[in-house]
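Fold this sequence, please.
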Amino acid sequence: MRTRKSRDRSRLIAAAMQQIPCDLTIENVKLVNVFTGEVYPAAVDVLDGYVVRVREEGETTEAPSAQTYDGHGAYLIPGFIDTHMHVESTMMIPENLGRAILPWGTTTVCTDPHEIGNVTGIEGVKFMLKNAKKAALRQYVLAPSCVPAVPGVEGAGASFGAKEVGELLDLPDVVGIAEIMDFVGVYKDNERMHTIIAEGDRRGMFLQGHAPLVHGKELAAYRLGGPISDHECNTPGEVGEKLRAGMHINLRASSIVDNLPVLLEGCKGHKWRDNVSICTDDVHAKDLLETGHINAVFAKAVKWGADPVEAVKWGTINAAREYGFDDLGAIAPGYIADMQLVDELDGRRPNAVFLEGQLVAENGVYLAQDPEDNEELTFPNTVNIPQITCEEDFRLKAPEGCGDSVKTCVIYLEKDGNRRRSVWIELPVKDGYVSLEGHDDLQYCCIANRYGSGDKTVAVIKDFGLKEGAVASTVSHDSHNFTVMYKDPADALAAAKELARVGGGMCAVRDGKVLDTLCLPVGGLMSPLPCAPLSEEIRRVQEAMAGLLSKKGSLLMVAVFALPVVPGIVVTDKGLVNGFTQQIVSQFDLN
């Protein structure tokens, strides 16, 4: 797929033949050739946003370019391509994301807006597409495939079927179907997933996968169902099995999950790694500001032993080929001139970034000339939780006739950050409610539908690390219902009132007092603030939350307990759900 429609081949040929001058020459660089793995001195000529010629050391031109840029001996590599990310997880709107990550060398992102899709439906996806145009970063969107993730076991603000997905696929800059995470629905060939995938098949579009721990006959069936990629591997063996099946593996390091050494181990021993690329998935603004974007994953890969030149290939041409972009990902004749200059191949911030031959960032400063925009952004309050009125709403009611104690399903998150486990614990019952007295390692979790249905679930979580108070969020993948971890129902109630007041976000509460709030009024997911001031707000809330926890954790720890398409037991507004079978399971054992 060509990503730019405008290309005057005659002008490009004339420039290559030195009959007309180019717009730009970047000279005095060490070019990293992603086709051959070579690194050599070169100069690169650019016209109309395309690379016209790469001149090796000693080669001159009879038609000097209108402008030259001295690379001062730095490495020249293609702009990075993120194969899978959620803009909403950065907590910025798309235009501010573009201004934040272009200076880090990312020039193209392929985004899944299923977070805002779950909150506000098709109109939310259209907002993301429109707002992205306000900044220079090339942003492609994939149509969300699972809104909600699993119908019937969670409630969301919208529902996408084949009709809605087809409508989105016909919009400009939509390039495929986003992570097809209902892997059970795919390998069981249920009608919903079959018809959604068929919309992509009919249009010959990219089908993105999401299949944690799926292997054997189920993996074969999943691949036959359509998805060609996966960013959810958990073991080296899983990486190898999926590579052998011809799938594209996205090496992920995010603000939530980072098992990159395991993924790299799974890549070892394979002679060809053309199906390996890089993604960030979920990275919030503070991490983007401090460590960067794809460059940060690249840096970690190199630290853990990856060859730097091959890692450049993973982040550029491999990513482009995964999507079928035939003019991105390389510095060679006919490719779009997305390039970055770096002093070392170690993931540091680039000295300069070029997008379509234009200098858009230099020494960390965003330079692109964005179109003037006087539109005032206004967003409706999407937090509607009428079922939350008093402290009692946050108590876990014990089953009738259970006596002074009851065997309760208690959920905990494994160290890899992706798998849930559960254990049955006999807990005391007081005044008809389950008590956590005597169990300092336990805390309550409440997931409350925030779209007016009135559904909610109170459950027990183990080893979350909460010492006191409550931490709450409307960022809660993927339905983004109100989620709160707490010891005291009074603190949970204060948190609910605060997030309903501000239109969503995150907050920390102790002794009934709100310690700090991160306001995310755009769907309860994003802030209109640029990266730097937003990062400061994130820092403050993160510190407030950390003061309530006995162990170090991510800001997004609270956001990962309600996704019913991950292995193990999870909590949704409908109840406890087994992620393997996607069925609601009992919370109590009365046998």
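The longest helix spans residues 531-546. The CA atoms of residues 114 and 140 lie 14 Å apart.
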